[in-house]
Structure formats: C-alpha cells, structure tokens
Design brief:
mainly alpha, 62% helix, 6 helices
Length: 131
C-alpha cells in the first residue's frame, strides 16, 4: 500500500512552510509525515526549553549589533515556542550563570534546525523529495 500523493493532492508548499515555522514539525504533518512531525516537534521544543532552563537569552532584533540580530533571527525561526517564551517572561539570560552560553547555543541551534526542517517540509510538499 503506497502513501504517495498525486500532484493534485499535494499540500501547498508555502502553507507547509508557514505551518512548520509556526509549530516545529507541523510542515511535515501537513505534508503527510506525522511520525517525522512528532519527532521534530518533541526534539526542537525540548531543545528550546532546555536553552531557557540553562539560562539562555532571547535576543532582541537589534540592527546596531549584527551578531545579536542574527541570533534573534535564528531564535525567531522557531515561531510560536519563541513567542510563547517571550510572552511568558522567559529568556532574560543569566550572564553570570555557568550555563548561560550553553543555553544560548540551544536556543539558537533549535531555531536553525527548524529552518532546515521548514525547508525539508517545503521540498516534500512541492514533490521534490519522495514521501
């Protein structure tokens, strides 16, 4: 039994990408790969929560400081988890904590990995990759 979809049954790649940005793994769910979606959701959300727990900082979008700006872009690639952490008052960053840099690394890398997951979901939805 094949789970391949025809070209007319494929989801919109932009919709899959937008869903993947809002909720990690949702793009794969839209593209019909629910197991991957669950793995990406759990893994990336865990990385984000770990980064916050380790005292990482949610960086602001500041043009004046290019590295801070790029870090913020990477973090915002996680979508709603980043927004929820910001609205919840998390991610103030404890600079004197021994785990501060580890926390920053987890937060930034979770966003960068989600960028790759979003691109993969786009390719799946566009039919560039086999299901």
């Amino acid at each position: 039994m094949s789970s391949e979809r025809g070209a007319s049954e494929r989801p919109n790649p932009v919709m899959a990408s937008a869903a993947g940005w809002l909720v990690p793994g949702a793009g794969h769910f839209v593209a019909g790969q629910s197991q991957k979606a669950l793995i990406f959701f759990v893994g990336l959300t865990f990385m984000n929560v770990t980064g916050l727990w380790l005292g990482g900082r949610l960086f602001p979008l500041q043009w004046a400081e290019p590295l801070v700006f790029l870090s913020a872009l990477a973090e915002w690639s996680l979508g709603l988890p980043r927004l929820a952490a910001l609205l919840g008052g998390f991610g103030q960053g404890d600079v004197v904590a021994a785990t501060y840099e580890y926390g920053n690394t987890f937060l930034i890398v979770s966003g960068l990995l989600n960028t790759l997951v979003i691109l993969d979901a786009y390719d799946l939805a566009a039919g560039r990759k086999p299901q």
